[in-house]
Specification:
CATH architecture of the largest domain in chain A: Orthogonal Bundle
Number of helices of chain A: 12
Number of strands of chain B: 2
Number of strands of chain A: 5
CATH class of the largest domain in chain B: Mainly Alpha
Order of helices and strands of chain A: HHHHEEEHHHHHHEEHH
Shape of chain B: globular
Helix content of chain A: 25-40%
CATH superfamily of the largest domain in chain B: Cytochrome c oxidase-like, subunit I domain
Shape of chain A: globular
Order of helices and strands of chain B: HHHHHHHHHHHHHHHHHHEE
Strand order of the largest sheet of chain B: 1-2
CATH topology of the largest domain in chain B: Cytochrome C Oxidase, Chain A
Oligomer: heterodimer
CATH architecture of the largest domain in chain B: Up-down Bundle
């Protein structure tokens, strides 16, 4: 028999051997198995720019506070439509370069929001850039660090045509009178963030969330298609989709995102222009960042619900918008596009 | 025998229909349905009976072995007797006769004799003692004779580790402030994301690792009753590990990060230096133990040698690239970060406790076998539980379940260890009033139990639901790495350094260190636990995320307060350490005043 008490060789070799065997069983073999998952049919590889953005993401240590995993429990469904699956990470978790391994993007702390679907939630580059320049400009209570070294501040006269300018409210400028320009790294990082969307699953194959409580309330979707005054909560939709830029009080961020309170477009009797802006986006407003379009993200009923909330809050007064109005504008837009 | 077998068959027979029934009753509240509960209870009864049978069998078997051994020893003894020479027997009888005739004279305690200190035991004579408020605590009674070179190695390692402790926790403190004032600075090298790994890696590889190895050198030489295999190798490893932390931190602050996986942030060329340092240290320790002058390997050395070899394996598996794309990396990350704590810090530190705790109390460890049990179960259970950091994640469900089950298994080594240490302390509680070494140990041991058990509970799926991703995790990691590891390391430092250098720091300052660290940790822990729980509940309610940020603000303030106390305590510790090791001019130490007032030095 091995006498561990007096035989140091036996002791060390046994401890070493058993540990190696256990480690192979619990880490190396499962790791090989997990590596073999193929991407989903509609999943796209990262472009070179997005991949560089991922490297910035890792270098700045974003993973310390932001997870990228929608767990299969009910509370996580605010971060994605379905739980994350191994296939989701096929492209984003490749070795970065010779020196650095694949990024630990799943994370272990959610000090800030999960980013699995951030590209869908915050598609606008203007918002992302201002938020990176100073998060408190768009979200007063945020404790995220500012990343001013991803930007340059130059004289307005020195701005070249190819430069991407960031609309920054005056009080957040480090030096007044300057113009903020995004560096290449900032643009890469934003490209990466915009690319973060849950890939679509083949129909009916998505795993389901484990509910926290056994009794589930019937979801509001059944009534959703009923019409303009549907069961949809316009306020909640606004808070989830619009408030990051236009803020919860509808006043926007002066110098970056326009106010909706008292806005001519919002209060207009004819809702067509407003519907068009929401669906298509808008870039023509001076002194403000461009707005992305939400045609792909919101249904007609949802657009109508949001509009009705906006048109009757913060002192605004305008007649109700119907789902059909949105539908009409949407189809006229697609006709235009086809011509 | 047959009756037992019949009984087992019988119980299985009873069980089966119940199991089938339970299947049918799968409804909404399935886990509280009587069928399931009944089944579980029955299974437990059967298991219980099976365990009793097994134990009875084992007992009989061990008894038989014991009988054989006793018989053998008896034969050996009588053989020895018959082999004795006549003169030897006479000598033994003569000695015995003398011993029986011995009587006390009655003046041994010197009531009428002159009091003379023939051996120079009295160091100082005081004319007016009895100031009970500022009575000095007991000084370390003896200094241990240690080779100058070993002293140097231990001091080098501990000095470097103390530096990294102060540096690393200064960074941690600064990060804590950033939760309260996010605009503290706008310098890329000092931004939160880059500094966070600087804090964790510095206290891991700088403070705790170097301190452990330094304290380990003393244990390994002392318990093997021999000298260190190579002092030069010890110094090379020292250089390598310090270089790892230095260059690693510079890389992190300049934005070079291996991938963001916790404790794996140093890129491989830098971590390679650490691995080489570990291999050298292992070789050095192993060779020292191999050349020991006693036949047994003391239990401390089991833990220390194993933790070194395990950590080398861990670093290699953690950094090899072949299986780390996709979620392969995540599996390895869970394995690596948990084993980094379990196989390196926890195992090594336990090894230190097995030596320094009995040494400071001047008595043997309570149970050697419990130590051996703790050793093997530590290896079997701890290795399996890495994935409990990824419960509900897209990692395989079975892997998560294995991790949870073995997390519960961790109760065995934890209870074995805690019992052993507390029972060793039993009967020596008066040491608490004499010095601060035992309080440091006691806090460390209690946290060993509480922190580890809490970790096991946190692995459960329900608790994970509430706590995972919140600041509760941060509280847990400080409860363990600080409450267990750091407190025990300090206890060991205060045990050994005064003995090496013959100089004890003022009790007031050691006390300040203890209380600041303890109260600071408590404030830190409780605030983040309460805040973390509330945050988890807020998420479950589906409130907007920013609400949970606002909710945390007061708790982050309290964390910063606790962190500040902890940091101040480290400054005090650094001073105490300096006080203990600073070189003093080798002046003559004894001054005696003669009757005429002249001073004579001896």
């Amino acid at each position: 028999m091995l006498d561990f008490n007096t035989n140091h060789k036996a002791l060390v070799l046994t401890a070493f051997g058993v540990f190696v065997v256990l480690s192979i069983g619990v880490a190396v073999i499962p790791a090989f198995q997990m590596e073999s998952y193929e991407p989903l049919p509609k999943q796209e590889d990262l472009t070179e720019k997005e991949f560089k953005g991922l490297q910035v993401f890792v270098g700045e240590g974003c993973v310390a506070c932001h997870t990228q995993q929608v767990r299969n429990i009910e509370m996580d469904n605010v971060w994605g439509e379905r739980p994350s699956i191994p296939e989701d990470y096929h492209y984003s978790k490749q070795r970065l370069d010779v020196w650095r391994q694949s990024a630990s993007i799943l994370g272990s702390e959610r000090t800030g929001p999960d980013l699995t679907d951030i590209g869908k939630r915050q598609p606008g580059a203007a918002w992302q850039l201002l938020h990176l320049y100073n998060p408190r400009a768009v979200s007063k209570e945020s404790i995220m660090p500012s990343f001013p070294w991803l930007f340059e501040e130059i004289d307005s006269s020195a701005v070249k045509e190819e430069d991407v300018t960031v609309a920054v409210p005056k009080e957040y400028l480090q030096e007044s009178g300057k113009q903020v320009i995004a560096t290449e790294e900032a643009m890469q990082l934003v490209a990466y963030l915009q690319s973060l969307k849950q890939p679509e699953m083949p129909e009916n194959s998505a795993p389901e969330f484990i509910p926290f409580s056994k009794v589930k309330e019937p979801s509001g979707n059944a009534q959703a298609n009923a019409g303009g005054s549907s069961g949809l909560d316009g306020k909640k939709l606004y808070m989830n989709t619009c408030s990051a830029c236009h803020q919860a009080n509808g006043k926007g961020v002066p110098g970056a995102f326009p106010s909706l309170a008292g806005s001519e477009t919002v209060n207009n009797q004819d809702p067509k222009k407003m519907i068009k802006i929401i669906l298509e986006g808008y870039e023509e407003m001076e002194d403000y960042g461009p707005m992305p379009g939400f045609a792909d993200q919101l249904t007609d009923a949802e657009v109508a619900a949001i509009m009705n909330y906006e048109r009757n809050s913060w002192g605004n007064e305008a007649p109700e918008v119907k789902e059909e109005d949105v539908k009409e504008v949407r189809s006229s837009l697609s006709e235009e596009a086809n011509q | 025998m047959k009756t037992i077998k019949n009984f087992l068959l019988f119980s299985v027979g009873i069980l089966l229909p119940f199991l089938a029934n339970a299947q049918n009753e799968m409804t909404d509240n399935w886990e509280t349905s009587p069928g399931i509960i009944g089944t579980v209870i029955l299974i437990i009864i059967v298991l219980f009976v099976a365990v009793i049978i097994f134990l009875a069998k084992m007992n009989a078997y061990i008894d038989r072995l014991k009988q054989k051994k006793i018989e053998k020893e008896r034969i050996a003894f009588s053989d020895e007797l018959t082999a004795l020479e006549n003169e030897e027997i006479d000598q033994i009888l003569e000695n015995r006769k003398k011993a029986l005739k011995y009587n006390l004279k009655g003046d041994e305690l010197g009531s009428k004799n002159k009091a003379v200190d023939k051996k120079g035991l009295i160091k100082r004579v005081k004319k007016d003692p009895n100031n009970s408020f500022f009575d000095e605590k007991k000084k370390t009674p003896l200094s241990i004779e240690t080779p100058q070179k070993l002293k140097e190695i231990v001091t080098y390692y501990l000095a470097a580790s103390t530096f990294w402790l102060v540096f690393g926790t200064f960074i941690g403190e600064y990060l804590g402030f950033k939760f309260v004032w996010p605009e503290l600075d706008n310098i890329s090298w000092l931004s939160f994301g880059r500094l966070r790994p600087v804090h964790t890696n510095t206290v891991f590889w700088g403070w705790a690792s170097l301190a452990m190895i330094g304290l380990g050198y003393f244990v390994i030489a002392r318990t093997s009753n021999t000298k260190i295999h190579s002092y030069k190798k010890a110094k090379i490893a020292w250089l390598l590990i310090n270089a790892t932390v230095l260059f690693g931190n510079i890389a992190l602050m300049s934005g070079i990060n291996n991938g963001g996986g916790e404790y794996r942030e140093y890129i491989w060329p830098i971590m390679l230096m650490f691995a080489i340092g570990l291999v050298i240290t292992f070789y050095n320790f192993y060779k020292t133990v191999a050349s020991r002058k006693i036949s047994e390997i003391y239990i401390s050395n089991w833990f220390i040698l194993a933790s070194l070899i395990w950590t080398v394996v861990l670093a290699i598996i953690g950094y090899l690239p072949f299986y780390q794309n996709g979620l392969g990396e995540t599996v390895v990350q869970g394995y690596y970060m948990h084993q980094g704590v379990g196989m390196w810090f926890m195992t090594f530190t336990l090894g230190l406790v097995y030596y320094y705790l009995p040494a400071t109390l001047n008595k043997p460890i309570y149970s050697y076998s419990l130590g051996v049990l703790a050793f093997w179960t530590q290896m079997l259970f701890y290795t399996m539980i890495g994935t409990h950091h990824f419960v509900f994640s897209p990692l395989p469900w079975w892997l998560q379940t294995v991790a949870i089950v073995f997390s519960v298994g961790m109760f065995i080594p934890v209870i074995a260890g805690t019992t052993n240490f507390l029972m060793t302390m039993r009967g020596s509680w008066n040491h608490i009033s004499k010095s601060y070494v035992l309080p440091f140990f006691l806090v460390g041991v209690i946290f060993y139990f509480v922190g580890s058990s809490q970790g096991s509970f946190q692995a459960f799926r329900f608790t994970n639901y509430v706590w995972h991703f919140t600041d509760f995790n941060v509280a847990h990691s400080h409860m363990t790495m600080y409450g267990i590891i750091s407190f025990i390391l300090w206890a060991c430092v205060y045990t050994i350094v005064p003995k090496l250098n013959g100089k004890e720091p003022p009790q007031l300052l050691v006390g300040a260190h203890f209380w600041l660290a303890f109260i600071g940790l408590f404030a830190y822990m409780i605030s983040l636990m309460v805040g973390g729980t509330l945050r988890g509940l807020s998420w479950m309610e589906g409130e907007p995320f920013i609400e949970s940020v606002i909710l945390m603000q007061p708790y982050w303030v309290w964390r910063a307060v606790g962190g500040t106390l902890m940091f101040i305590s480290h400054l005090v510790f650094a001073y105490n350490f300096y006080y203990m090791v600073k070189k003093r001019p080798q002046k003559v130490t004894h001054k005696i005043e003669t009757v005429k007032g002249e001073s004579v030095t001896v």
